[in-house]
Amino acid sequence: MNRTTSTTAKTAAGRPNRPRRPRRLRRLAAPLLLAAGLCMSSLATAGPVQAVDGTVITYTQSGGRTVSFTFDDGPDPTHTPRLLEVLRKHNVKATFCLWGDHVRQYPYLVSRIAADGHRLCNHSMAHQDMGGWSQQQIRQNLEQVNNAIRRAAPGAQITYFRAPYGSWGQSPQVAASMGMQPLGWRADIGDWQPPGTGELVNRIMQRVTPGAVMLMHDGGGDRGQTVSAVDQTIPRLKAQGYTFDQPAVR
Ligand SMILES: [Zn+2]
């Protein structure tokens, strides 16, 4: 049955190629393992002095039937105040990923976000794609944002960093070294091009999963539909047993 003759190579699909693949993998394996080892050792040595590590997290702090709403690209003079009202009405804390330029324009909104007990997240100065940037360039940009936030809301903690476009490059390590947790997302409701409040409500309800960080926007365009959808979905999520939690900090 299990014939191991010279014909095996012809009859067993893929077998003739098999010896080649491992050779190629072996050639790659050494540098990959070395790189992984270097990464781990640099994390390990940096670990004790950092509050967070460089992992991009996509889940809530507590897990279980919790969810984190995160709002990007603000603060916005029209939609952020409305959103804050909605969140206050439902007694929900969220996370705001702020552009430094908008922070400088509307510092009073940042202090209101912080005063309401929401979490702050650095989202670059002007939504730059940092994918190809050096660590120094990234650090400079992130420091400008943090300085603007601290001027607007003295004493506020900047817990997270989110890379514009999810183009992370070397930014997770830089953010972590500055004490900010790299913050990704598990569900994106696609509100950057408003599809109608009803559609956004459906997307939130369909895409929510236990422990998910959800990506939404309160700035960068007309976010009226997002604010209304948030207002409508919070009671429905609570009715389904969800509670609202902050994104995880490792
Ligand atoms: Zn953004």
TrEMBL record:
The cross-references to SUPFAM superfamilies, in alphabetical order and at most eight, read: Glycoside hydrolase/deacetylase
From the UniProt record, list the coiled-coil ranges. Answer: none
Which of UniProt's keywords are assigned here? Hydrolase, Metal-binding, Signal
Keyword Lyase in annotation: no
Residues of the signal peptide: 1-46
**GO function terms (MF aspect):** hydrolase activity, acting on carbon-nitrogen (but not peptide) bonds; metal ion binding
Q: Which InterPro entries does this entry report, sorted A to Z?
A: Glyco_hydro/deAcase_b/a-brl, NODB_dom, Polysacc_deacetylase_ArnD
Q: Where is composition skewed (Polar residues) in this entry?
A: 1-10
Gene Ontology cellular-component terms for this entry are: membrane
Report the residue ranges that make up the NodB homology domain in this protein: 65-245
Q: Where is this region: Disordered?
A: 1-21
Name any Gene Ontology BP term.
carbohydrate metabolic process
> Which PROSITE patterns does its entry note?
NODB
Q: Read off the PANTHER family from this record.
A: CHITIN DEACETYLASE 1-RELATED, GLYCOSYL TRANSFERASE-RELATED
Q: What is this protein called?
A: Peptidoglycan/xylan/chitin deacetylase, PgdA/CDA1 family
